[in-house]
Amino acid sequence: MSRLRAVVALAVLCIDAFGQCGVERWTVKTGTDTDSKLVNLNNVTATTIANLVALPAPSNKPETNRVQPTETTVFVLSATLIEFKLEDDSDYHLVLSDSAGKTLIAEIPSPNCVSSGSSFTLGITNARSEFDAHLKPGTDFQTANVPVLVKGVGFFDFLHGQTGVAPNGIELHPVLDIIFNPVPTVTSVNTAGGFPDIAQNDWIEIKGTGLAPSNVGPNGMSWGSAPEFASGKMPAQLGNVSVKVNGKAAYVDYIGETQINVLTPLDSAQGQVPIVVTNGTNSTAPFTVNMRTVAPSFLLFGASKSVVATHANGSLLGPTSMSVPGYPFTPAQPGETIVLYAAGFGLPTTALVDGSASQSGALQTLPVIQIGGASATVQFAGVISPGLYQFNVIVPPTAGTGDNPLIATYGGFTTSTGAVIAVEQR
Hints:
The protein is mostly beta strands. The chain has helices at 2-18, 26-30, 49-53, 121-132, and strands at 44-46, 74-86, 92-97, 103-108, 142-156, 170-180, 185-191, 198-199, 203-209, 221-222, 237-238, 241-245, 248-249, 251-255, 259-263, 271-279, 282-283, 287-292, 297-298, 309-311, 337-343, 361-362, 368-371, 374-385, 388-394, 402-410, 413-414, 420-423. The strands form four sheets. Strands 19, 20, 21, 22, 23, 24, 25, 26, 27 and 28 form a ten-stranded antiparallel sheet that branches. β12 (241-245) and β13 form a beta hairpin. The longest helix has 17 residues, at 2-18. The chain is globular.
């Protein structure tokens, strides 16, 4: 009997070490496909389950190629691990859930099923080790209720009744890292509109994971009618989330699990300063960012390159293709006076009160603005509300039909490239 037990034990060890590996789209799942070189492991996109399950399912899932951009993107998300199992193909099958009950699958392959030539091998080995340190999967599903931070490559699987599968078949496969009971993390900070640094009295975007409670939902929470406004102040906390810039409280406009928008406090410090986000009782490690006197940036409509702008009569300015029912957009005309909106242009001539819900005042000097490579006449430049800058500008007569590049220079710095303003010659 002792010999039989030894043989059985050896068989179990061999199955664990050299178990059956997967077949379907296996090279894509493990990073040995020809498109794997397109996956930048150093560029991680913070997301949510809600965002991923909302992606359209591809009509075709190539056996040895990737569906771009989803399958060439490394995602990181906060979720709750609710079920897990060791699959027949030696993968750890994880079911992740958000606060609304949406689920998706994440898979950790066995390192023994991954070619040594895969750039994913180190991450997969790490994820497997991290999981084994906390839980022991068996061949039957086990339930859990554990907050996790999961990093993995996007992957569209075929639907075949998998437990926890998203309607569009999206998965994180393979998982490259998993952290149990994670604390919130900041991954990037920039001025709204794209300038890489920040300034005082500046609208900034803070991105990361676990930045707000999951119950804020996929659309997040904005300050709306925060009670502080009744006393003429802006809220320094929203949904139990607060932010400090260089140790001073910022003013919180929007919170989501992967992004927070705040107005920086009045602070004349220059150089490297820390930003700390506090979500409930947990705080991020300090994230260092460069603070300048100005961090000029044009605000953009959504994910477009079109600058937030209006005609002089207040109607929306932009390409007609951006129009939606009730919100028509029309391009500018050469010689027309238009209104542009921006952030990060520093202090006006009027002294500001930190935290006040009311701000106004002209800038110290007029910025230099170019539209389509030609200088535009700037009639007014100043603050019109907390952190919001308005420029009244005459479109140069040489501006051509289509998207014209728009740049502004102020205080020795220039806005980020890529912003455009739509013009139509008539």
